[in-house]
Design goal:
7 strands, 7-stranded mixed beta sheet
Length: 198
């Protein structure tokens, strides 16, 4: 089977992917991916310390062709931008009434051949004692791996670092995730939460 060089691969990318990749390079970012990326996964993105993470993250998701859905607080989906947020892949969650959310999302992942759900497990741009467990519980309920993603401002790298198959041993699984994120720093590193479940 003939090998395919990077230039040939780029010419077969949709225009939106090529433009997003070009924009990231223009801004000085390197977009990274994992080999054999799973079609269904929960993507845990870390660290999340700045409002700039969202637009740069959308560019990277487009450049990588992730077609990712993402979870956001329901207030983001109010007028006038609610429709746009949904078209960009947003799924609103009411933090005050989360009952059934994990199983509903897990069922949606199981029903689809392709479904990447992106979550910032810190849940906020402020410093917290650790990560919310929702991403982990969704991945376990859906039977899919966790893709570890980063917006690493220290090295201007953005994208996917690892695919972790969860064992159910939270301590061991989080250690693997933490290892893959070693050295990654947010735009405001003092706001990055420790990599542990709370």
């Amino acid at each position: 089977m003939p090998s395919t060089d990077d230039a040939n691969v780029r010419t077969h990318m949709p225009l939106a992917q090529r433009l997003a990749g070009f924009a990231l390079r223009l801004l000085g970012w390197q977009c990274i991916d994992v080999p054999d990326r799973p079609q269904r996964a929960v993507l845990a993105v870390y660290p999340h310390t700045s409002n700039w993470d969202f637009p740069i993250g959308l560019l990277a998701a487009t450049a990588l062709g992730l077609g990712a859905r993402w979870v956001g607080k329901d207030t983001l989906f109010r007028r006038p931008f609610g429709g746009l947020m949904r078209r960009l892949g947003g799924i609103p969650v009411n933090r005050g009434a989360p009952a059934g959310f994990v199983e509903n999302i897990a069922a949606g992942i199981r029903r689809n051949e392709r479904f990447i759900l992106a979550i910032a497990p810190e849940g906020t741009r402020s410093l917290r004692p650790g990560w919310k467990s929702g991403f982990y519980r969704i991945a376990r309920a859906a039977g899919v791996p966790v893709l570890v993603g980063t917006i690493d401002w220290s090295r201007h790298r953005i994208g996917l670092l690892a695919s972790v198959d969860l064992s159910g041993d939270e301590t061991a699984d989080m250690a693997k995730i933490a290892d893959s994120l070693a050295g990654c720093r947010g735009r405001r590193p003092e706001l990055a939460s420790p990599i542990r479940l709370i």
